[in-house]
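Could you show me just one protein sequence together with its fold in token form as a worked example?
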Amino acid sequence: MLQTQNGRKIETQEFDNTKAGVKGLLESGLKKIPNIFIHEQYILEKKSDSDSDRPELSIPVIDLEGLNKGSSARREIIKKVKESCESWGFFQIVNHGIPDIVMKKVLEGVRDFHELEIEVKKQFYSRDFKKKVLYNSNFDLYQAPSVNWRDTLYLIMAPDPPKPEELPQVCREILMEYSKQVMELGQKLFELLSEALGLDPNHLNEMDCAKGLYVTAHYYPVCPEPDLTLGFSNHTDSGFLTLLLQDQIGGLQVLHKNEWVDVPFLPGALVLITNAKFKSLYHRVLPNNIGPRISVAFFFRMHLQESRNSRLYGPIKELLSEENPPIYKEVRAEEVVEYRYTKGLNGIPLLSHFKLDASSSD
């Protein structure tokens, strides 16, 4: 076993040293994925599910156009938000105000970055996640049980964004513009979520939930053996809310009532964590053999150095009672993010570590 672990460590280090990511592996002409990418648990799941008769489930879709049509239409949207968050912890939004052409250019810009020459991308390659702009493959490369088939550009876009010249030129302007529009949309969504929780519309925004914005721009190359690996392992997110833009390739799945459900191509999707009042759901990304998949996730959260000495976050006191006591500790935002980087995607729900009885969750 020791030899196997040493072999894995060497293989992982060699992969990291190339600074070429998964795309570089593919361009080297490999026909089989390296051992470090094989997900044994996923292979077992596929075998056990192969004969199952899966039910047809529809992802909740909420049309935000009604926000401009008076109070009764707004109340209906809030009702749908509440139902979707309580039953799924996830929904997709349409008519959210961000033009289709802008979202199309974001996906094109991210693809253009990842398809730059390796020598150009290498200048951004780093594992120092305190940098405001960096690129690598698998943030948890040395912690996770298996490596994912994905490369990522990471950006800290709020509250203290990088200088324009620090961003890759090929996607600079569109990511700056889109981030600005996402921040505006996020504030509206936090108002809806506040009301869905029975709180004042400004409650979550006044908690600074929309203050920080962290961006992960993913590139999932064609995979020669998609049945043996994952593009993104099962995980829950580390922020207050996640807005995801994905292309038409597909592959995103969410776990609902112990069934993995495909998420169809639509402009946006989000997740919120509120002391288990709203679900923080498991989701993952399957690799493909069709073409590169592009997705861009916008996390409303503070990052590492930006959250130093930040306020404490915990169960919303207005939602607590004797019948609904607190489940989670009060923690600083940096503690949640640091735990994610320390442990990686280890298959354990991120928030479980911060439960009041979580002394043995490690």
In short: The longest helix spans residues 172-196. The two ends are 23 Å apart (CA to CA). The chain has one domain: 2-302. Confidence is low (pLDDT under 50) at residues 273-277, 358-362.
